[in-house]
Amino acid sequence: MATWEDVRKIALSFPETVERKPRDFRVKEKMLVWERPLRAADLAALGDAAPKGAILGAWVPNLDTKEALISSRPDVYFTTPHFDGYPAVLIRLKVIKVRELRERIEEAWLDRAPKRVLQRYLETAPKRD
Fold first, then answer.
1. Hey, how many other C-beta atoms are within 10 angstroms of the C-beta on 104?
2. pLDDT higher than threshold 90 for residue 123
3. Is-contact 113 28, C-beta < 8 A?
């Protein structure tokens, strides 16, 4: 189970990432991950399937990635009609493992970081298996 402190620690570990307001992380004004409580329209659309607890919005590289995440891990990832056509997923924070959370935040950062920042990061980042 991941926490908001895990989100903060991971997000801020990437170069030039800031917490613009509480639980809203960006790299050079581009959203990476953010707190996204369900709104009335979301609750109506999801009905009984609406999850309880903390929800994290996360940028993904494209709609194919979004669909793959949702179909492979519906216990963790979901969407609402508000995000139709947008490359973003919603994450049930209380069920995602910290390692998988890091993968999602890193994926968002790699997609959104400016080219010069990305290049410098890729040149200096330790290689992981």
1. 24
2. no
3. yes
Q: Compute the chain's Rg from CA coordinates.
A: 15
pLDDT for 128 equals 63
pTM of the model: 0.91
Please tell me the distance from the alpha carbon of residue 50 to that of residue 45, in angstroms, as a whole number: 8
Stretch 13-31: mean pLDDT: 95
Which residue shows structure tokens 């707190």?
A: 35
DSSP 91-125: EETTTS-HHHHHHHHHHHHHHHS-HHHHHHHHHHS
DSSP H helical ranges for 49-97: 63-72
Q: CA angle, 48 as apex, 76 and 87 as ends, to 5°? A: 40
Which domains does the chain show, CATH number per domain?
4-119 (3.90.1150.30)
